[in-house]
């Protein structure tokens, strides 16, 4: 019986050889591929799975997909918490005075680039405060010249920016966003967006012109709150002609601008969803307006704090991960709370290199 089985098996083998080794191999490959795919799909459904496939993009650049395929394509690095303004609603307050040494900051930026970062936005606190913009300038140059990131941008209150800075670093910067919540100087002062007698609006116009001269795309950010919710900003925005006007609904964050340990009490600035919608309706003719409701803001940003820790805002506070400098981007990003779908839905990916904007400078 055993012998007859063996003979039968040998016969089968020979037949298979004749029918073409190539076709057998291709079948085996196809079965293996299907099996591996099924296994991966099953693993991705488990939230704590540590599947982190790597691939090489067309440009030959290594990209990490992180957990559940998350790529840190657009990152906001709040490298300082210090600020010269006192906006009453501020949700990123001066809880520490820590700033990483420049070489460590650069190491982190390189790690992010290796993990797939395409856009970096420098924020704060006020990013032009530390070393009078020298620290920021060096990071901007490094990201554009050495890391060759498609997009390098800054969000600032504008007050500390000088023409000298533009001369030195303007060529490396794609987008500069200046925050302005009102076109009435007194309203800005009541909000806390100002320092001493300096005019926030005068500086805004100055910076806008420097952006033109030094070929940097100009953007405006406004936080809609109880102080400006009834304002009509159409004329001013049209005149300033930014590439984008981000309009935020004032957001509360536990430990930052609300709750026991917070440095601000922003409750009196908060507006309802309906009030926010009314503001948007009034400004619907402004084509560059990009609205951001509270819900959109909470989980659609990848935020790094001054220690290069991702901040998870889903619970209404900023829960930090470990630093990417200690555990790497792939591990840290699992604790970022980042919702890539919401990021894409809110238009997080747009034409963000100034070279692609076709602007008439
Ligand atoms: C924290 S600030 C840091 C950069 C800079 N100091 C500035 O004011 O532009 C970054 C952005 O967040 C906005 N922001 C601050 N507090 C906010 C809040 N409670 N809700 C919505 N946006 C807020 C600011 O207006 C600014 O556009
Ligand atoms: S929102 Fe105002 S207080 Fe907060 S960091 Fe920006 S300028 Fe400073």
From TrEMBL:
<dbReference type="GO" id="GO:0051539">
    <property type="term" value="F:4 iron, 4 sulfur cluster binding"/>
</dbReference>
<dbReference type="GO" id="GO:0005789">
    <property type="term" value="C:endoplasmic reticulum membrane"/>
</dbReference>
<dbReference type="InterPro" id="IPR058240">
    <property type="entry name" value="rSAM_sf"/>
</dbReference>
<dbReference type="GO" id="GO:0050778">
    <property type="term" value="P:positive regulation of immune response"/>
</dbReference>
<dbReference type="InterPro" id="IPR006638">
    <property type="entry name" value="Elp3/MiaA/NifB-like_rSAM"/>
</dbReference>
<keyword id="KW-0479">Metal-binding</keyword>
<dbReference type="GO" id="GO:0005739">
    <property type="term" value="C:mitochondrion"/>
</dbReference>
<dbReference type="InterPro" id="IPR013785">
    <property type="entry name" value="Aldolase_TIM"/>
</dbReference>
<keyword id="KW-0399">Innate immunity</keyword>
<keyword id="KW-0411">Iron-sulfur</keyword>
<keyword id="KW-0949">S-adenosyl-L-methionine</keyword>
<keyword id="KW-0732">Signal</keyword>
<keyword id="KW-0256">Endoplasmic reticulum</keyword>
<feature type="domain" description="Radical SAM core">
    <location>
        <begin position="69"/>
        <end position="289"/>
    </location>
</feature>
<dbReference type="GO" id="GO:0003824">
    <property type="term" value="F:catalytic activity"/>
</dbReference>
<keyword id="KW-0004">4Fe-4S</keyword>
<dbReference type="InterPro" id="IPR007197">
    <property type="entry name" value="rSAM"/>
</dbReference>
<comment type="similarity">
    <text>Belongs to the radical SAM superfamily. RSAD2 family.</text>
</comment>
<dbReference type="Pfam" id="PF04055">
    <property type="entry name" value="Radical_SAM"/>
</dbReference>
<dbReference type="GO" id="GO:0005811">
    <property type="term" value="C:lipid droplet"/>
</dbReference>
<protein>
    <recommendedName>
        <fullName>S-adenosylmethionine-dependent nucleotide dehydratase RSAD2</fullName>
    </recommendedName>
</protein>
<feature type="signal peptide">
    <location>
        <begin position="1"/>
        <end position="23"/>
    </location>
</feature>
<keyword id="KW-0051">Antiviral defense</keyword>
<dbReference type="GO" id="GO:0046872">
    <property type="term" value="F:metal ion binding"/>
</dbReference>
<dbReference type="InterPro" id="IPR051196">
    <property type="entry name" value="RSAD2/Viperin_antiviral"/>
</dbReference>
<dbReference type="InterPro" id="IPR026372">
    <property type="entry name" value="RSAD2"/>
</dbReference>
<keyword id="KW-0391">Immunity</keyword>
<keyword id="KW-0408">Iron</keyword>
<keyword id="KW-0472">Membrane</keyword>
<dbReference type="GO" id="GO:0045087">
    <property type="term" value="P:innate immune response"/>
</dbReference>
<dbReference type="GO" id="GO:0051607">
    <property type="term" value="P:defense response to virus"/>
</dbReference>
